[in-house]
Amino acid sequence: MLQLQPKWAKTIDSNDLTFYENLYERLQDQTLKSKASISSPRSFSFTPLVKAFNHEEKLLIICFVTNMSDEPLDLIDVPITFYAEEHSLQTDVTIDQLNLDAGNTTLWTLIFENHPYEIKKQPSFLFE
């Protein structure tokens, strides 16, 4: 089940929500293929979807976060590594008050302050 966090539920545009719901359906039927990957030592699966930059030129990676365990998990200071285009970037991820039920998926934006990418105004898709 796609379980939006309160921050996302308050701000997401209805067209964007439809877009991500369609991607979630593709994730469920295993036809969504990401061109990037994210590794984590915890029982979470990260599926990178969109690469963008904010006004501070920080790299933003919008991704699905799926709880792969059999129990609810929190996401507090979890180290992750993002791999794409021959680069690897590391950061720690915290989603405040996340309690993602077993097997459920949420949307989240990962922020990387230091990155090797050229700043672009338009977001790029990280999936086929």
UniProtKB/TrEMBL annotation:
UniProt cross-references to InterPro entries, sorted A to Z: SLAP_dom
Protein name: SLAP domain-containing protein
NCBIfam families registered for this protein in UniProt: SLAP_DUP
Provenance organism: Pelagirhabdus alkalitolerans
